[in-house]
């Protein structure tokens, strides 16, 4: 079957950084695995980080890609949630081969039925970013799903115009929070406003002077999607006493936690692959949240964050999308659909 993979970890402008390969189609799924025919894929920063140059050579092609929409072809003997022919969407597991291939094996406990109102391309834009935003807001920051009680509370979303931020704004709006988004370019500012941000500030400048200009003295929650260490002092200054900060971006350098001490403030990580990596007892929660989100999409409460769709799925186009992501100027999500005949 067709796939896009790598043997060497190279700069994306090198034609060998991602190449078209032929690999063996997965055999019959075992246990709770589904065999999915891949119709569309999306690209996330995790793809570019894993592909980033390093001194390592793979014996077999490594397949990346952790956003898939497709059709279930076969189910494992222990499956109870899906059957052949079901249309699905999911992010997969980072410790297994990714979905940049014509067929893909995935545990059904992290898969959802595709929203009926969306195309495969529109659905492929959602899983990884939706799971990340959902878990961050509801599981890590413990924000209530219901607007009652949240009217006076605020959330600052740093790097809000990207894929995760584009979903987080919508979820935070449904929860009734006052939303402060950070964006720095006219097009990204307009994008976050369209999604529901109440205020927009520039993450290239100190936060507090900008917040105070808008009458905001502190924020109850902070969701950091860009350079945790760089923004740390500004976040620690802006967070309210007993407030909570969540980040999805690892730190390449130590930061000083002491400013959170007097405020009894919380800092927590969100990594959406944790449940699948460790096969946690609550692994199926990702299936449940994708099912819930699909209903919300079909009810018109959440919109897809797809902004560009490229065809077909091949190495040349995938390298192009990686280049766009690495530029740091993308808005929403970029999707590729349909493998070449």
Structure description:
Helix 5 (186-195) links the parallel strand 10 (178-182) and strand 11 (199-201). The protein has two domains: 2-126 and 281-337, Medium-chain alcohol dehydrogenases, catalytic domain (Quinone Oxidoreductase, Chain A, domain 1); 130-269, Rossmann fold (3-Layer(aba) Sandwich), CATH 3.40.50. With 341 residues, the protein is α/β, with parallel strands linked by helices. The protein is 30% helix and 28% strand. The mean pLDDT is 97. The strands form three sheets. Strands 3, 5, 6, 7, 8, 15 and 16 form a seven-stranded mixed β-sheet that branches. The protein has eleven helices and 16 strands.
Helix and strand arrangement:
Blueprint lengths: L1 E8 L9 E4 L10 E10 L2 H7 L2 E10 L4 E8 L11 E4 L12 E5 L3 E3 L6 H5 L2 H14 L13 E5 L4 H12 L3 E5 L3 H10 L3 E3 L5 H7 L5 E6 L3 H11 E9 L10 H4 L4 E4 L4 H5 L6 H14 L7 E5 L4 H12 L6 E5 L4
Parallel strand pairs: 9-10, 9-12, 10-11, 12-13, 13-14, 15-16
Antiparallel strand pairs: 1-2, 1-4, 3-5, 3-7, 3-16, 5-6, 6-8
Helix pairs in contact: 3-4, 3-10
Pfam families: ADH_N (PF08240), ADH_zinc_N (PF00107)
GO molecular function: oxidoreductase activity; zinc ion binding
Protein name: Zinc-type alcohol dehydrogenase-like protein
């Amino acid at each position: 079957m067709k796939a896009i993979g790598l043997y060497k970890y190279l700069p994306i402008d090198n034609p060998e950084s991602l190449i078209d390969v032929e690999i063996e189609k997965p055999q019959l799924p075992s246990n709770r695995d589904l065999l999915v025919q891949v119709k569309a894929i999306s690209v996330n920063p995790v793809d570019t980080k894993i592909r980033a140059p390093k001194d390592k050579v793979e014996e077999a092609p490594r397949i990346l890609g952790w956003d898939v929409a497709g059709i279930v072809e076969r189910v494992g003997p222990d499956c109870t949630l899906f059957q052949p022919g079901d249309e699905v969407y999911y992010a997969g597991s980072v410790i297994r081969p990714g979905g940049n291939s014509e067929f893909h094996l995935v545990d059904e406990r992290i898969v959802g039925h595709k929203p009926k109102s969306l195309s495969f391309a529109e659905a492929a834009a959602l899983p990884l970013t939706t799971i990340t935003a959902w878990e961050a807001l509801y599981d890590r920051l413990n924000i209530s799903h219901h607007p009652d009680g949240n009217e006076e509370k605020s959330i600052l979303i740093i790097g809000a115009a990207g894929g995760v931020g584009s979903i987080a704004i919508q979820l935070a709006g449904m929860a009734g929070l006052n939303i402060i988004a950070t964006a720095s370019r006219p097009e990204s500012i307009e994008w976050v406003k369209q999604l529901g941000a109440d205020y927009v500030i520039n993450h290239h400048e100190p936060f507090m002077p900008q917040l105070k200009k808008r009458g905001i003295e502190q924020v109850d929650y902070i969701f950091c999607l860009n350079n945790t260490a760089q923004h740390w002092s500004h976040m620690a200054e802006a967070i309210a006493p007993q407030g909570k900060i969540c980040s999805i971006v690892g730190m390449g350098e130590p930061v000083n936690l002491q400013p959170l001490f007097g405020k009894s403030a919380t800092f927590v990580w969100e990594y959406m692959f944790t449940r699948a990596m460790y096969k946690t007892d609550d692994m199926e929660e990702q299936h449940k949240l994708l099912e819930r989100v699909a209903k919300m999409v079909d009810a018109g409460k959440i919109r897809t964050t797809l902004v560009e769709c490229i065809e077909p799925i091949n190495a040349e186009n995938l390298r192009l999308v990686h280049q766009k992501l690495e530029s740091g100027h993308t808005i929403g999500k970029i999707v590729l659909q349909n493998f070449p005949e």
